[in-house]
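G.,

No rush on this.
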Amino acid sequence: MMSNKKIIISDIKDRRLDAYLAEEMEGMSRSYVQKLISEGMVFVNDKIQKAKFKIKIGDTILINIPETVEYEAAAQDIPIEILYEDKQIIVVNKSRGMVVHPAPGNYEGTLVNALLYHCDGRLSSINGVERPGIVHRIDKNTSGILVVAKTDIAHRFLSEKFAVHDIDRRYIAAVRGVIKENGARIEAPVGRHPGDRKKMAVNIKNGKFAVTHFIVEKRYRKATLITARLETGRTHQIRVHLAYIGHPVIGDETYGGLKKGHSIKGQALHAALLGFEHPLTREKMVFESEPPEEFKKLLEELENE
């Protein structure tokens, strides 16, 4: 459920959008207002704007306010593949189809539920009761490696490393069409789709700086296998960038990769490598995992086309 509020500016001009709403909306902090704006929940004259947008007399602001849900993730005995674990961190190989943390529509069966059971509740508290331990995410229908923090010290250290892009993240993907170049750097800002807030898009006006590097591993008759490396980590970044250059990930129904004749369910995208410094020892750690069987089956199908 969602409520909305409309405001018509009658007496203020040249004021930042986030600052104005933080004062106007009772009970809303500026950080929460900025979160709503970044998620495309605030419109000025029917257009999504940035937090720094200067409002003026006559502007109409529409704020969509999600219903607040108090929820604490519960421990559930769900099998998960653990690649490494110590007192500070746990590294897992997430299966395709598993949601990382509870959210509306997915309050059970998530990776967080499974980790709370496995770790007997001992996960970092920084992200609250809904997302304990979660430093970064991968999409529900993307498989692969995640590092989770068991202590607040580990969480802060890893979060800082992600913020300055000092984490090695590599994905393998099967994409539609034959890529002629052997590799490329894609630089295009990623933000909310201007017409569909559930999707992301290359958004020149309101998007955030985003860079993806890729190299071609193998070409098929109508597809290409690539390795992609994230320089930044925006929501759906690889999927959006590959669709932007005309080669959407196979199986990705959100960004144009769905095609009849392939058995894979969900996008053919796998987080195959994760490298980072250990929060306490500063040891360089690198973890790798092979793609799931359905991904390998897809590659066989592409080979036989």
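When you get to it, here's the other one too:
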Amino acid sequence: MKTIPTRYKIFIVGVFIAFMLLHQADKLIIGQVLEDVQRDFSLDDAQAGAIGTGALIVGAICYLLWGYLYDRYARPKMLALASFIWGITTSLSAIATTFPAFLAARSSTGIDDSSYPGIYSLVADYFPPESRGRINGMLQLTAPVGFVLSLVLVLALDGLIGWRNIFLLTGGLGIVVGVFILFGVKDRARGSAEPELRELDDIPTYKFQWQSLTSLRKRKTLFPLLAQGFFGVFPLQVITFWFFSYLERERGFDSGVIFPIMAAAVVMMSIGAVVAGSLGDRFSRRSRRGRLVVAATGIGISTVLLPITLLLPPETSPLIFGAFLACTAFFVLFSGPNVIATIHDVTPPEVRSSALSVQYFVENIGAAGAPWLVGLISTQVGLSTAILIVAGVTYVLCLLFMLLAVRTVAHDVDALRGEMRLRTDEIMAVRG
């Protein structure tokens, strides 16, 4: 197989990071301007929570569609389409004048929110298994950095141009990024980076097959990963959607205090994502279970640290609270890059987008109710207690399911490696 120039690999990763970073900022701005939106449309917390839930439901449904499209057609073209949809739907939410119209427009942004599996599938074909965790970690850090970028945009522009024009700005950026993807990113033969196939001069074209997808039921690791995914996004959705309001309302922090606290937390979260991916790569070379052991460790530590942080007394100084939050944030994304790499480690190349889409579909079905559920509980017991209940319970469940996945993953990785060797032998036999 022809070697890909390092410079082009760097360009590819840079484009993917740009897409995900700007998209995450656009997606997360709603949490920073939620108080403004509530005032403009006279919404209570339950109605505000429905804004986040609507987008999650639409995104969950569209994951299955995007997974099929990415495995069936050219992935860069599909990703460019997602970027254009991002620009259009965000702009529609900016011009909505009634709450039903705004809710419908904001929910439609879930269409492009479910477009990431194609990116990770391309990464799996540009980079070999032993380095995917690190690249996935770099892509995962776009979520926390995007959160900081959304904060910066709101703090710098909300008072000048208002939240509606901020959405018009980020929507326009989606169109620009789509152009870069359409003309700059090349597709890659599925399976190109697999150890058993990458030495071949010409790799057959592998595309979506229902038989390959249905055969994934034999991969026992995928079921506990799906179960932990159902609960795993709850804490992150709760934090990204409600935490800004929590710091203002429950802790009494103003924007001058909130920004450095959240910035420190996001820096630690970003470092944690890259560290987790790198550790996953390193330990996977020693053991088939290595990636998921790293993921389980991160979940376990988060399960302990998050309640401790939220239970700090209201009079706790911002410095101490920020330190605890930063320590917690370091472990929040430990599972993300390793779960993605593990799914690619146990699934055939032609259905990797679909397999990851099913994972994300289940995650979003579980998380779709998180913003609304916290808002509903908040009306009864307060926002702080609502966040603690929802995030704490789901973290415990995630840890239990991740430990089940650790038990089965080695067998499933060996099964895929055997399948790839068989394909290589068949190709060599046909070519004589």
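DSSP finds 18 helices and no strands in the chain. The chain has a mean pLDDT of 86.

Enjoy the weekend,
O.
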